[in-house]
């Protein structure tokens, strides 16, 4: 049987998250690394890794089921949300690019888990009439700001990129982008006719903006009071960071209209009982599929 392990891992604040993720992806270990704002999980034939604290561990069939459940949106804060399926696909593409040729067994494992997640979504209908987290955040920001007012997105990961596309397609506002990596920020901004910069230029980038959407994976706040001194008032901020991307001093400002991740999620909780019913169907499909996969893999 293929030896499979899944880890939900916690990186100590003293370690730089992106460096750890890059090291895992580029190491001789053949791993699928799922790095999002809300989770960091790795899948493969794992052995202890120095400096990485494991919160939860799953083996073999349970690891297969774990990946399928994540991709189906069953482990998300918003049941059935669409964003995570794309994030798992991106993680799989990176695995394919860097490791799949050396481990066809793991490649088949990841393909089967993704196929099972898509089947569970399709047959349960869990994601019917569900808008993605980034779509909800973008829609809420557009509802709050004046038509045509400049807005900024802080972050360049998958959720930030999706939010930028949503703002561009459904709004008429100029979009500015900032992230830890200036090249990523400028590339994303250029794709929607805006401009970007690194976090070290955040204050001038936020001059005259009326809305800010934060979506980074930083372990600490990235937006402070001095960054928004020249922004418009009132200033509308949607914060999808976990932990929050905004410092407490920003949240407490009288002229700041602040909506945290929990507030965005609350707007997605309509028809919760029906979605919970569909989630049970999706979970059963995945559980049965994982059992069948485990039996076949023996």
Describe the secondary-structure layout.
Elements: E1 5-10, H1 17-26, E2 31-35, E3 40-44, E4 53-59, H2 61-71, H3 83-98, H4 104-124, H5 133-144, E5 151-154, H6 158-170, E6 175-179, H7 182-191, E7 195-198, H8 202-205, E8 211-214, E9 235-239, H9 248-251, E10 256-260, H10 261-266, H11 272-297
Parallel strand pairs: 5-6, 5-8, 6-7, 8-9, 9-10
Antiparallel strand pairs: 1-3, 1-4, 2-3
Helix pairs in contact: 2-4, 2-11, 3-4, 4-11, 5-6
Summed over residues and divided by their number, the pLDDT gives a mean of 87
Helix-and-strand structural type: alpha/beta
Q: What's the CATH superfamily of the largest domain, by name?
A: Glutamyl-tRNA reductase, N-terminal domain
Per CATH, what is the topology of the largest domain? Beta Polymerase, domain 2
| Largest sheet strand order | 7-6-5-8-9-10
DSSP summary: helix tally: 11
CATH architecture grouping of the largest domain: 2-Layer Sandwich
| Gap between N and C termini | 4 Å
Q: Tell me the number of strands.
A: 10
Order of helices and strands: EHEEEHHHHEHEHEHEEHEHH
- How big a fraction of the residues is strand? 15-25%
Portion in helices: 40-55%
CATH top-level class of the largest domain: Alpha Beta
């Amino acid at each position: 049987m293929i030896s499979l392990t899944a880890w939900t891992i916690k990186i100590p604040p003293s370690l730089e998250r992106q460096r750890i993720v890059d090291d895992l992806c580029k190491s001789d270990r053949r791993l699928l690394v799922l790095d999002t704002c809300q989770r960091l999980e790795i899948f493969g034939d794992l052995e202890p890794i120095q400096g990485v604290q494991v919160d939860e561990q799953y083996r073999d069939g349970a690891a297969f089921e774990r990946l399928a459940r994540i991709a189906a949106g069953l482990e998300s804060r918003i049941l059935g949300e669409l964003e995570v399926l794309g994030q798992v696909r991106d993680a799989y593409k990176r695995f394919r690019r860097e490791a799949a040729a050396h481990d066809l067994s793991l490649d088949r494992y990841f393909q089967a888990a993704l196929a099972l997640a898509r089947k569970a979504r399709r047959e349960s209908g869990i994601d019917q009439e569900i808008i993605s987290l980034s779509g909800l955040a973008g829609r809420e920001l557009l509802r709050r700001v004046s038509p045509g007012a400049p807005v900024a997105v802080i972050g360049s990961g998958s959720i930030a990129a999706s939010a930028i596309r949503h703002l561009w397609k459904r709004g008429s506002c100029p979009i500015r982008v900032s992230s830890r990596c200036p090249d990523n920020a400028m590339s994303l901004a250029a794709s929607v006719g805006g401009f970007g910069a690194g976090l070290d230029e955040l204050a001038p980038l936020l001059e005259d903006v009326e809305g800010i959407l934060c979506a980074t994976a930083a372990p600490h706040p990235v937006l402070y009071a001095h960054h928004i001194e020249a922004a418009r008032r009132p200033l509308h901020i949607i914060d999808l960071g976990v932990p929050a991307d905004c410092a407490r001093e920003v949240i407490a400002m009288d002229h700041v209209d602040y909506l945290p991740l929990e507030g965005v999620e609350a707007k997605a909780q309509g028809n919760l009982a029906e979605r919970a019913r569909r989630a049970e169907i999706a979970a059963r499909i995945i559980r049965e599929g994982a059992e069948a996969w485990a039996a076949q893999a023996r």
